[in-house]
Design brief:
4-stranded antiparallel sheet, alpha+beta
């Protein structure tokens, strides 16, 4: 490889690695990381460290407890075993969930109809934020739909459509504290309040769809160990610089590096009382490979816009965004809009 080509190659590889370093810096110096618990992803405080107790996952720093379930029967058994709970309607409560307090803890249990996850902590705002970040193994997200376009109201909340998967579970629960009567009493009022806000021109879902984490920076700030880092501090970059005089294969090898991964948890999906010794939880100690939000499909984009009253004429995948041709029934006009492929938000 001659010198000019070598320099160009070096610049290209540095650019690629820089993007990775910046992404890692945003994650590490930010406030959240995405962790995998038995195939269910959730955003948790970046400095949390979960232990697999054999009866779920626990982080002592924030007092977070997480249980996962692989079927509805396991969820019902879990709810039946809870004592001294009070069903509540939580601010920014996701669809397909039941929220309850137990002692000083607030808990949210969510389902996608086939599996479930329960999240508990003393900080109610923390529980709310985490519960809105869940991504089930079938890629179904817990967060509520926000307004897809400025000036367009988000869809109304409906017990029949937005809570149809959790209701059969509550119906099977035989618990004096958690049952269908108390659940309906709480959630019917909650749904009415949400829809009233929408009718008054507000977006009640906005807070839950914001970037998560402003409340999670306390731990890293207290530690006082945040340091600015140079690009050359990255081992991938330094190795590449050392090997720049070598052949193509050595340079590509140096650029490749090792990516952090999270092993699948070996714990049972159903909380048990086996009393097994505590071990580090694979889901909580490090971010998963897929730290970025899953890309929305064209069908999801179409459904999102259709629910806002738009007629989708065409969708083109442009990588990080979709170019969508829509017809606005209110004006009979046709226009092209850009929709972020990961968040579903309008790109100006």
């Amino acid at each position: 490889m001659d010198l000019n080509k070598q320099v160009i190659f070096f610049i290209v590889i540095i650019g690629i690695i820089t993007a990775g370093v910046v992404g890692a810096s945003v994650l590490n110096n930010g406030t959240m990381k995405q962790a995998d618990f038995d195939g269910i992803k959730i955003s948790v405080p970046s400095d949390s460290e979960f232990i697999n107790t054999g009866n779920g996952f626990v982080d002592s720093k924030y007092g977070i407890s997480i249980h996962t379930f692989k079927d509805n029967g396991s969820i019902v058994n879990y709810l039946n075993g809870i004592n001294g709970a009070s069903v509540i309607s939580l601010d920014n409560q996701p669809p397909q969930s039941v929220a309850f307090t137990q002692g000083d803890d607030t808990n949210v249990l969510l389902t996608n109809g086939a599996e479930g996850i329960s999240i508990g902590a003393k900080d109610q705002d923390l529980v709310s934020k985490m519960s809105n970040s869940v991504v089930f193994s079938n890629h179904q997200k817990s967060t509520k739909p926000s307004a897809p376009l400025p000036g367009i109201a988000p869809p109304h909340l409906s017990m029949d459509n937005d809570f149809n998967l959790i209701i059969p579970i509550i119906n099977q629960t035989n618990n004096v504290d958690i049952n269908m009567a108390v659940y309906e009493a709480e959630m019917n009022v909650y749904v009415e309040d949400i829809n009233s806000e929408i009718d008054n021109g507000q977006d009640p879902y906005a807070d839950s769809n914001d970037q998560l984490g402003d409340v999670f920076n306390q731990g890293s700030n207290e530690a006082g160990n945040q340091e600015s880092s140079s690009l050359m501090d990255n081992s991938q970059v330094s190795n590449l610089v050392e090997n720049i005089g070598g052949d193509d294969s050595s340079q590509l090898s140096a650029a490749g590096g090792d990516s952090a991964s999270v092993a699948d948890s070996s714990s049972s999906a159903t909380p048990s009382s086996s009393g097994s010794s505590a071990a580090p939880a694979s889901g909580g100690n490090s971010p998963s490979d897929d730290n970025q939000q899953d890309k929305l499909s064209q069908l999801e984009i179409k459904d999102l816009l259709s629910s806002a009253g738009y007629v989708v004429k065409d969708i083109k995948d442009k990588g990080s965004y979709y170019l969508v041709t829509v017809e606005d029934p209110s004006s009979d006009g046709v226009e092209d809009i850009k929709i972020d492929a990961y968040t579903g938000n309008l790109i100006d």
